[in-house]
Design a protein that fits this description.
alpha/beta, eight-stranded parallel beta barrel, six-stranded mixed sheet, 22 helices
């Protein structure tokens, strides 16, 4: 086939390509790869080819060798391989007659795609993914986009509460099958909407997932059962018939879904994620099974692993919590692999719990060590999964963020080679963006990784899982539990109501602020602006968390029949700091003032219960 020549960068001939980069491959993925490479290969002549038999050597990767005429020949095992090469020319521009080969470590590399911002092909190039699951209600043309990017495509079914899927259809079903209606336990986040002891329930579930899988050209369906959990039925049939545990119900749902999909030649992918640690949310108890240690995790999922078909895929987060910063490592990852199932390790790099990407943060060090550990647990034949983007920020373009896009880039490189040189990964990302300022930018963003942990996980404890300010003392304390960090020895010790812990929570903020300020000289104006926001956040929550730990001390003293007016005055000084230094991200991340006001009123009650109003005049 005659090589095509693209001139898209010149803007002269739509659909044609520039002279420096040519391809013999008639596929949309190859055409996009040529466009992505334009302007990134200097004066080099580059030709993109595909050779299916190369898969025996490089999987779905690629190789690059220099032809006798000096042309760099990039040969992919399949069209998407050319997208992978197009994202990293710095890795192969120096190729000689001896080929450079890029072989992905994991067989499966699943990407959650939200349908916002860049195209499927661009995200496949940037993440090295070979499978994509589309966010809820984001199918349509995106299915074709997945085919054009040469990747498998999965629909997404969220939760197992069918009243949330289609209310009208569900109401009609219950009218015909009242025996399938569940008995709700009451005051539980996990609802008993349907009865798992009723055969009609499973017929409805099978029909639902079949219709979803056939609604587009999907290879299968990704499912997750939480947060919208609807099978927590407490009727007599469930209590006496073995359907009164999450483990039994999970095994039943998996079996129902996989058999329905198997009948139409589709595959099931199950996310084992639940919902953080057990806690009250309002007046409802979130049971969050699977997070209270290895035994609880296995009780929740082992039966599903053992009884499932070999083709079913299980996806488990590397975090034993919702996501970063710095949570305990999963105690479930590796169990599905041990049971002979396909297993993927999942990362969430969305800014969800570290400032929604308004603040600079790095997850590179965390990704590096967790990728190595995950690789040892699941093996090359299994894989990895990435949730990336801007959590609940429709205006955010993750791949265009010259500050936080390092996290996606590092994940991509480490997912292809868990032993890759992390410092080299930093440099290849920073140098094209920052030039002579690259070293300063790297140092600053490395400091941001620890600062993000300190900002959103004080003394190793949990923080708002949406990055939003808690609005009350009770909610703040629930959040200490929610992300599981209280199970760590240092987390439990941090909650002791001691003077030392008050000082620790202030000191760690001060140390993070000092580290950030030391790296600020020499960085670009935009990076400096984002660092200043993180410093402001740390100063704000130095006051909030300092006051929170002082309140814990005052409550302890009250129970001992004594008090300390000095602590109350320090809380007032913390509150004064907030009044005099308004939090710059109140509109985006919520105001800390309601929480501080609640801390103050609770502290006043503690002190006046013992000292009366005289504390105000005490020395």
């Amino acid at each position: 086939m005659k090589a095509k020549t693209l001139l898209w960068a010149c803007g002269l001939v739509p659909g044609l390509v520039c002279a420096a980069v040519t391809t013999t491959v008639d596929h949309p993925a190859a055409a996009r790869a040529v466009q992505l490479l334009e302007g990134r290969v200097g004066a080099a002549a580059v030709r993109l080819d595909v050779a299916a038999d190369l898969s025996q050597t490089v999987g779905d990767g690629y190789e690059v060798r220099r032809a006798a005429d000096g042309t760099l020949v990039v040969t992919g095992a399949r069209p998407r391989s050319l997208l992978y090469a197009a994202d990293e020319p710095q890795r192969w521009l120096a190729a000689g007659e001896r080929p450079i080969r890029r072989v992905p470590h994991f067989a499966h590399r699943l990407l959650n795609f939200t349908g916002k911002g860049h195209s499927v092909a661009d995200w496949v190039a940037a993440t090295g993914a070979n499978e994509v699951h589309l966010a809820r209600n984001a199918a349509g043309r995106l299915v074709k986009d997945c085919r054009d990017a040469d990747v498998d495509c999965y629909a997404f079914l969220y939760g197992c509460d069918p009243s949330k899927w289609n209310r009208g259809k569900f109401a009609a079903f219950l009218a015909e099958h009242p025996e399938a209606k569940g008995t709700d336990p009451g005051r539980s986040w996990e609802k008993g909407v349907m009865c798992p002891s009723s055969p009609a329930t499973w017929a409805f579930f099978a029909q639902t997932i079949t219709e979803l899988a056939q609604s587009g050209d999907f290879d299968g369906v990704v499912v997750t059962f939480w947060d919208d959990y609807g099978l927590n039925c407490c009727c007599r049939r469930c209590r006496t018939g073995g359907m009164n545990s999450f483990g039994a119900r999970n095994a039943a749902i998996v079996n129902c879904f996989e058999q329905a999909l198997k009948a139409i030649g589709k595959r099931l992918v199950v996310r084992t994620w639940a919902s953080g640690a057990p806690h009250f949310l309002g007046d409802e108890w979130v049971q969050a099974p699977g997070y209270a240690g290895r035994d609880d995790a296995l009780a929740t999922w082992a039966r599903a692993f053992e009884k499932s078909d070999a083709d079913t895929v299980f996806v488990t987060k590397v975090y034993n919590s919702d996501c970063q910063p710095n949570p305990p490592f999963s105690n479930l990852l590796g169990a599905a692999t041990a049971a002979g199932r396909t297993e993927l390790a999942e990362w969430q790099i969305t800014g969800q719990t570290v400032g929604l990407n308004y603040l600079p943060y790095s997850t590179v060090a965390h990704t590096a060590w967790t990728m190595k550990k995950a690789a040892a647990l699941v093996g090359r034949a299994n894989g990895v999964c990435l949730y990336a983007g801007g959590y609940r920020r429709g205006d955010y373009e993750a791949l265009d963020d010259d500050v936080n896009s390092i996290n996606v880039h590092a994940w991509r490189q480490l997912a292809w080679d868990p032993d890759d040189d992390v410092e080299a990964i930093w440099r290849e990302w920073a140098e094209p963006r920052y030039g002579a300022d690259a070293a300063a930018a790297i140092a600053a963003l490395k400091a941001c990784e620890n600062a993000a942990v300190v900002a959103f996980s004080p003394l190793g404890l949990g923080a708002p899982t949406e990055s939003k300010a808690a609005n009350s003392v009770q909610r703040r304390e629930d959040l200490f539990r929610y992300t599981n960090r209280q199970f760590l020895p240092e987390g439990r010790a941090a909650l002791l109501p001691s003077e030392a812990n008050i000082q620790k929570v202030v000191d760690e903020k001060n140390a993070a602020i000092a580290a950030l300020e030391a790296t600020r000289p020499g960085v670009t104006a935009e990076l400096a602006r984002r660092i200043d926001l993180l410093i402001a956040h740390l100063k704000t929550y130095r006051a909030v968390d300092g006051a929170m730990w002082r309140l814990r001390r005052l409550r302890f003293l009250k129970d001992m029949g004594t008090s300390d007016a000095r602590l109350m005055k320090e809380i007032e000084a913390d509150f004064d700091f907030l009044r005099q230094n308004p939090y710059p991200l109140s509109e985006e991340l919520g105001s800390p003032v309601p929480l501080m006001r609640d801390i103050h009123s609770n502290a006043v009650e503690c002190v006046e219960r013992i000292l009366g109003p005289s504390w105000r005049t005490a020395d």
